[in-house]
Amino acid sequence: MDEQIKAMQAEIEAAAASITDSKEMYLLRKQYLDNKTGKISALMKNMRDLPPEERPAFGKVVNVLKGWALDFFSEQDARLKAIELAQKNAAEQIDVTMPASKHLCGALHPQTLIANELIDIFAGMGFTIFEGPEIENDYYNFTALNTPQDHPARDMQDTFYVSEEFLLRTQTSAGQIRVMENAQPPIKILSPGKVFRSDDDATHSPMFSQMEGLVVDKGITLCDLQGMLDVFAQNIFGENVKTRLRPSYFPFTEPSVEVDVSCFACGGKGCRLTGWIEVLGAGMVNRHVLENCGVDPDVYTGFAFGMGIERIAMLKYGIPNIKMLFESDVRVLEQFRG
Ligand code: DAH
Questions:
Q1: 3-state secondary structure of 331
Q2: Mean pLDDT over residues 233-257, rounded?
């Protein structure tokens, strides 16, 4: 009898010795201790076959075995679970010296930065914003701006026509007409927006942005224009920058000027930017344009100006090719993160 018990103990210990997993240990435990199918439970059942006088002693011995097995398996279970927990903790350890994964953070596009800066500067001088439509009709984009059909100045802007009447606006100047048709002076508006021209090289893109300005009131002169341009140029390019007006031609202004700023890189001494840099077109609003909009040119005068936003961005940031502003190359754009 004792041998049988000892043999079973040895058998359990031998089987347990090769087990390294608490789940397997549980299965082994079941083989011996399961109430219905366990080998130790089976010994109890065998008791029925013994003569009654042997039964108490046998029962006692089996109970001792059962007690031993219960203790043995709970020790094994605790031992294996402790090992497993230690392994799990080791696997989940955090290396606080590891570099954190980077979250890329967006930034405003240089075109947006310049547009916002321009809006801030002109809002500070009392301008309000007007945004016209990108699909315009021929009248607003050309005819009302003193550029009737067959006018040679139409060739200055290669136009994308949508139909005979409609086109993709070639200039935000179209907004001047829409504003003056709907309001009497004093008028002081800034009109930013996309414009489109069939033109494509390192400094031209078929789609680009302009910022148009219009001021109409009694007694407005070219001096007012230049005073305002100085404020604009010094804010955008630097305190010491000067402006220079050169005679030019636009159908909707008379006189018309092209505006240069003194080089903010070399101070006008001469460098890759040639000392003076052209930044925008401007002029006194042509009296025909005022008349077309129902504004009396004998009472009111005005000035207008229009600039390319990408051109200002390229000059200010030294961007050599306008395409860099449309390619969305993160290596370029991330340099503008504030
Ligand atoms: N619309 C002109 C262009 O696209 C720019 C311009 C010149 C706008 C003179 C004006 C202006 O308002 O007065 O080239």
A1: helix
A2: 95
